[in-house]
Amino acid sequence: MKNPRVLTEGALMLAIFTVLLLLALYVPLIGTLAFFVLPLPLILFSSKYSLLNSIYVLIGSLGLSFLFGGLVALPVAFMVATTGVVIGWCVKAKVDKMRLFMASSLTLVINIVIGFVFSILLFNVNIIEDSLAESKAAYYSLLEKLGQEPDKRLVESLENSIDLIQTLMPTLFVGIAVVMALLFMLINFPIMKRLGRDVPVFKPFREWKLPKSILWYYLLTLVLSMILQPEKGTYAYTALLNVLYVLQTLMAVQGLSFLYFFAHIKGWSKGILVLITIISIPLLYLVRILGIIDLGFDLRQRLQRKS
After folding, report:
1. Residue 20, pLDDT score
2. What's the burial of 119, exposed, middle or buried (CB within 10 Å: 0-12/13-18/19+)?
3. pLDDT for the residue numbered 276
4. Could you give the CA distance from residue 250 to residue 299 in angstroms, rounded to a whole number?
């Protein structure tokens, strides 16, 4: 970082990052927007300068975060700053947007898992279990205030739901990371474009198509779950259930993408697309089947031939 221009721009980006971090931590409402814009200074810097210089700025951002925000600010700063550097490096390397999305999602997953493990080891706090316990206590407290006895079936259903959420914790972490990565890109890329930076462009959602191998993984997981039938609570049960849920979600995305493709072929308006999206939520099972058929039999190509 001997170049004065690099030093000046690095210092400017660090100042912007620190201000945004403090807004994200301590200012309600505005803080939410500030959090999703927080990676922008690191993205802008790392998309322009070398990876080594970006790491220096990353270390500087952590130092300033600790100085102004204390220990609480460090996990947030580390998660967002590392993601910002990864996104910026991918932009500089002209990586296509799907790989960029996967890289940023993976970075966020790793950060979330590290944060979760550290919160248990250092502070003896399990955020997921504590949240579920509070929800359960609130439910029983509400029934008590209403003067009602908890229904056995409802209690059993609640316990099963809590067990399922705990089992699906890895999938939950992946889901959170994917949504965050998507929001980071959707919010920050248009700003970068306005600043004259080149950013990769996603294909339209109707053109999204999963590799056919995903279908085989899905079928293999289904067969394994039926053959092995692992006991609840075992590692095999947890692993199979999480993989199955992730693959089912991917099939649902494939099915929804096909519906958008079909709407485009038919020339339907955006209003109908919004309606399709809303209706598909309670009908995810059917959308998933449609995704499987599209992936297995290439429905899009058949439709294009007919049209």
Report:
1. 94
2. middle
3. 85
4. 17
